Amino acid sequence: MPNLKANDVEAASRQVDRLFESQLETLKALVRIPGIAWDAFDASNLEASAAAVADLFETTGLFESVEILRAEKPGSEAFGAPAVVAHRPARNGAPQVLLYAHHDVQPPGDASLWNSTPFEPVLVADPIFGDRMFGRGAADDKAGIIAHHTALLSVREILGKDFDLGITLFVEGEEEAGSPSFRNFLEKYQLRLEADVIVVADSSNFSTTIPAITTTLRGLVSQVFEIRTLDHALHSGMYGGVVPDAMLAMVRLLATLHDEVGHVAISGLHQGHASELPYTEAELRADSGLLPNTELIGTGSILDRIWARPSLTIIGIDTPSVAVSSNTMQPVVRAKVSMRIAPGQDPESALEALRAHLETNTPFGAQISFGEIEMGSPFEAETDQWAHALMSKALSHAYAADSVDIGIGGSIPFIADLKEVFAGAQILVTGVEDPDSRAHSPNESVHLPTLKAAMTAETLFLLGANARAQG
Fold first, then answer.
1. What are phi and psi of 191, to 5 degrees?
2. pLDDT tens for residues 164-178?
3. Less Cβ crowding at N or C end of the chain, within 10 Å?
């Protein structure tokens, strides 16, 4: 692997410094477009978002083609959301690098919980947390798009347009909606997307001062199920104390999913181990907003618990709300559980284990039936390859701190698709977020010094990758 040259480090930092303020304005313009890939939202905003991204990369002058493309959703004639694909081929033995991000964003949620208007970006200087840009998508993942764009502009200024490195850009438009057409998209445009290295800019760093490459991700298994004990609703005063209603059965069943200290109580699930990095309970409490008297669940290393062991959350229950409740025993209750599975566990076996547990522990002879599922495979990167070493070095230079390998407790299911379709590619999961970015939540923000360092690191990575053509 070629070493990063001192003049490359200086040149990358200089170019990012020069571009940074104008790139913040570009990021603001993207944040103002409320591109949400959910059916309940105006699809024209997604079209506008894709067009803005395509224009952005067209003007770099680096690509042979910049296109807005779509693929069919599985089992449907409908097409998925618009994605932007740009391509320039590698020359003289240089690698082909695919840069991934997504331009769609989460819905804003309850506007009253925001300190600003979700789609009007606001810069805030904070003496404790540092300068930040607030707005939906400011971190997840429009900052990833801007990091790619800034790195490409910087490489162009340092090397000129006539460099050997191949670049493919893939900016998806439906990641926050579960990427329904993603696998079809990869297979439909596989030849256009083939790469030696895939850089996914959609993750987090260990902190605002310590950069990271995400090397493990937990997988996902979610299950909707229904409990039924009666063929019709009953007056609770008439039959309570003898007849178990569906809510009682559901509550008892849900309580079996964890043991007395909070471990997932489903047998047959894999348990892993996380990197040994310093992370205290105080840091966890600050990052998560845990209330002072609320105790942690589980035992052992905190990072093991959130990166490398299974977890389970009850994310929805359908039953009358308090506002419309009456003295009625419910005949049927529906719930949805979301289970994160450790790297090394396949989602099919985890789903079987979850269903077996629910069937075995359903109380009172109640009927249980299963509905919709969602599954995503976990991810574990190979860390002994040249791209990982180069990115680690680039991050360490850009942040002036040693890069670390981290896990993420959440899932990015499409990475498993990338790994399957492009089996020979090295996959690097990076990002511009930090523990207080609050992606998906009100008051989402990107930490501006982190964003700037991410731009510099990616510039250095591309310069180093280009040097492989000569080395």
1. -65, -35
2. 999 999 999 999 988
3. C
Q: Provide the whole-model pTM.
A: 0.87
Cβ 201 vs Cβ 144: under 8 Å: yes
The residue count for the chain: 471
The pLDDT score that the predictor gives to residue 1 is 44
pLDDT in tens, 33-63: 999 999 999 999 999 999 999 999 999 999 9
Q: State the DSSP string of 144-172.
A: HHHHHHHHHHHHHHHH-S----EEEEEEE
How do residues 88-116 score in pLDDT, each as one tens digit?
999 999 999 999 999 999 999 999 999 99
The answer as to whether 174 is a domain residue is yes
Domain carrying residue 332:
220-282+298-376
* CA–CA dist 118, 201 (Å, integer): 22
* Closest alpha carbon to 268 in 148, 175, 354, 370: 354
The answer as to whether 388 is a domain residue is yes
Residue 427 lies in a domain: yes
Q: Are residues 262 and 143 in the same domain?
A: no
How far apart are the C-alpha atoms of 438 and 461, rounded to whole Å? 27
Does residue 293 belong to any structural domain of this protein?
Answer: no
